[in-house]
Amino acid sequence: MIREREWILILVLAAVAVAVPLFGDGYYTKFATKVIIFGMAALAVDILLGYAGLVSFGHAAFFGVGAYIAGMLINAGVVEGIVVLAAALVGAALIALVIGALSLRTSGLYFIMITLAFAQMLYYVGQSLRAYGGTDGFALDQRIEFGGLLDPNDTTTFYYVSLALLAVILFLCSRFLRAEFGVVLRGSRDNAVRIEAVGFPSYKYKLVAFAISGSIAGLAGALLANLNQYVAPPGMLNWEISGELLVMVIFGAAGTLLGPVVGAAVFLFFAEILSEITEHWMLLFGPLLLLRVLLVRDGLYALLQKAIAK
Amino acid sequence: MTPPPILRIEGLTKRYSGLVVTDDLSLEVEPNELHAIIGPNGAGKTTLIGQLAGQVMPDAGHVWFDGKDVAHASPPERARSGIARSFQITSIFPSFSTEANVAIAIQGRRRHSFRFWRPADRDPKLIDPARELLTSVGLGDRMQTPAAVLSHGEHRLLELAIALAQQPRLLLLDEPMAGLGSEESKELVTFLLTLKGRYTILLVEHDMDAVFALADRISVLAAGRIIATGTPEEIRVDQEVRTAYLGDEMPIAAEGER
Question: Considering CB atoms only, which of A189, A198, A205 is closest to B105?
Fold first, then answer.
């Protein structure tokens, strides 16, 4: 799937990502960390949207579950990064298995609605957790640690930890999406009847993809909880998050791995700048999304791909 | 001594809100036989194929395949037990290359595809047989072409290649000649003749020249029932077939049948 020239693009993006903390102050590094985290969550959405043809409108659920698991563990004194992140990953995967098992029995518009419904349920569960601040949420006592080797309380260190995790996930995704599993996923996206007729019970494959996607979103949520050192239903479990992740994917380019990350960067950049001008920044962002859909056929990342192909 | 039939359909019935599309249908297909099904539009031919491959669930009756009743098995279960089909309306993976369309069907023969590491597009056990098969159907120079941009005739060949890639023990062909020009049809008949005797084939087709050139036996389907089964010669002279379905003339290719 990776053409020769694409390596240049990947290297450029990687170089920019690695260089971010060298420029400017902590503010930009923190912003870049947010981009990495949302890029990771958007990638999770794109595994379903771009490769399996499934529009999940409920990924806030997995994002939020990851954040809550991380926050709860840390405040309970479990601060070892590997343990906390693994717990968020597995917890989100299990929730995704349950939600996916039910949602994947439907398709199309029903699938969109049922994933949204499940995410809303979890939003209200989050709100009802009195011990964890209800609607207000709760602050984290500290960030995760890595055996005292790394100090994630340092903005730059936390950025590189997030970036490394994103790189690992991108690599693993590029493997499994090109392996036999990914072929079946893409096949089910292309032709739901034919994939079954050649011998694949596509439900099982989509369910595993849904769980993988949920676990990645959960990991991203755990990282965001650590970045903000705060967890609350709004901003993590609300349906707008699910929508924003979809917008990031569409902006960047669905069906590519780096597209969602580029989309997250562009989205958050505009959100930052436009919200300086007005709190109704979506009013200004809306037309941009419209332009993207009307003028750029496959998304910004595809545009970059074309630019280097020349 | 005739071998036991590989496919035995018994009392198969399918209704669509009161309309009986398959009416207590029974039929036997012998191993390595090329059995054609003909009948007027609306006779229920495609619905019958759907019930054999699993896309359509029958309301009653049995489909004995190799001694097992698969009437209510899912499409992937039936594909894995050795039933492959082609679709009347081309059904392929449009975003895949031609080669990948066949490779995925070969992959479907494996026990499962929960493999996450090795690139499937570099697996010689998938790619080599896919290329061989595409060459044999005449798509050898189109391997890397996205399937979406192939011509209609090429789509029909790809559809066939996908079904053959499944190494079926029962091959269901639903109007493989649909929409082909007369030259292309002839070529396809020539190719199908090379399959004869090696595969058990149930062929639904409107092109009577093709049917009479290919079939070992022909069954005539009308209003969801088999009204006659016999060799091409027997069917040609069968008075009941003539009055019930053929009229006085052999039908010519019609279109838009479902």
Answer: A198
CA distance A243 to chain B (A): 27
Q: What is the pLDDT of residue A225?
A: 98
Chain-centre distance of CA A183, in angstroms?
A: 22
CA dihedral A146, A152, A157, A161 (to 10 degrees): 60
Nearest C-alpha neighbor of B178 from the set B76, B84, B45: B45
Burial of A172 (0-12, 13-18, 19+ CB in 10 A): middle
Residue of chain B with shortest Cα separation from A207? B114
3-state secondary structure B175-193: CCCCCCCHHHHHHHHHHHH
Q: Which residues of B touch A200 (CB under 8 A)?
A: 76, 108, 113
Closest approach of A14 to chain B, Cα-based (Å): 23
Identify all chain B residues contacting A181, using CB atoms and an 8 Å cutoff.
113-116
Q: Do residues A237 and A253 lie in contact, with contact meaning Cβ atoms separated by under 8 Å?
A: no
The CATH architecture one would assign to domain B1-82+170-258 is: 3-Layer(aba) Sandwich (3.40)
Which of the residue ranges A144-148, A304-308, B131-135, B227-231 would you say has the lowest mean pLDDT? A304-308
Q: What is the pLDDT of residues A157-167, one digit of tens each?
A: 999 999 999 99
Asked if A208 and B114 come within 8 Å (Cβ–Cβ), the reply is yes
CA of B195 vs chain A CAs: smallest distance (Å): 20
Q: In a 3-state reduction of DSSP, which class is residue B57?
A: coil
The rounded mean pLDDT for chain B is 92
Mean pLDDT across A239-254: 95
Q: Over 60: is that where the pLDDT of B246 sits?
A: no
Task: Choose the closest CB to B113 out of A181, A194, A197.
Answer: A181
Q: Is residue A125's pLDDT more than 80?
A: yes
Q: Are B147 and B96 in contact (CB under 8 A)?
A: yes
Give the tens place of pLDDT for each residue, B22-68.
Answer: 999 999 999 999 999 999 888 999 999 999 999 999 999 999 999 99
